[in-house]
Amino acid sequence: MGNCGCFSFLKELPSPPQDKPKLPDLAGSSPPKEPRDASGKGTEEPSEAEAEGPGDDFSQWQPGKHGVADISPNQDGRLLIREPPKLPKDAAAVPDGAEVCLNLEILAGGKRMMRCEALRTSAGSGDLNLPEELELAIPCLKPGGVFTALCRPFGLGELPATGLWQSLVACYGKEAVLKLELLEVQDLCLATLEGHERLDYAKGRKEAAGRFFKRQRFEAALERYSLAAEMLTQRDDIKDNALYSQAQEVKSLCELNAAACLLKLEKWRDAEAVCNAILRANPANEKALFRRGKALLALGDSARASADLRKVLEVNPNNSEAKQLLQQAKKESKGTARERNVYAKMLQSD
């Protein structure tokens, strides 16, 4: 995958599996126990308890240990997930956007609240027809065993208004456990997609990002806007002129929307960097100028912010937001000038 430099501050996204992963045997998904000697003691291998960690003793769960990870949006421990012990070494996580089929069981208060077999959906879709906890857990799944997710408490978002998920209303505000087993995963290798396939994939990630953005899931939206833009960095193999132009437009929109996400996340320097890259290719891009001006103003650089906002008004004199922000930049610039004068006089008095 090419690198346009816009998103160099982001973590490298994991490469998808080259081959379709071998799916687990449903009847034998639990790992075999290690052999024991006559005394009942284990061999040189770690004991089952040591190898598998705390199991379902959730009080012992700690992110970073025994396959436990914190996948809650704010990394506050509200949603933890644990890999099954002895997961196959070649097991790979679900590629973003891949269609999946899984078994799901949800428990609360020691009771089974729901069991759903062969549930079909896609990873990272921003699907409003899924509970938030399930949306977050699915991208972590790998074939080869049952994953356990701990909700403390259940209810990161509103439940879908209709359908089978309404049976989970009783779980709201309570500790709940999700058991998830991946049965099938779409054979999706991003590295081998042809130009028109990359365009279709990028458009799908852009749509998913938009759904996440509307739900104020800005990190999730940023990840998908960035992925979509990176997928369209190389476009030389798109021979159809109409598709090539469409790919350029989708890439540009995703970069602009990534900057909007970064502003929402108050990552001002990163937002400035993305806008810089856009403006190198298109110096008169109104949205990039406005968003860079907004980032610069937040960073206290009112002079450069004012310059960008004036350029916005040259392109579009009716941009009311730019007018308001420019007035704010002028006020802050005057305040900064006064502070410099006071400081200069203090130095002179010394």
From TrEMBL:
SUPFAM superfamilies: TPR-like. TPR repeats lie at residues 286-319. Gene3D superfamilies: Tetratricopeptide repeat domain. Pfam families: TPR_19. It comes from the Eukaryota. Residues 45-55 have a biased composition (Acidic residues). Residues 1-81 are annotated as: Disordered. Residues 33-44 have a biased composition (Basic and acidic residues). One of its GO terms (molecular function) is protein folding chaperone. GO terms for cellular component: cytosol; endomembrane system; membrane; mitochondrial envelope. This is FK506-binding protein-like.
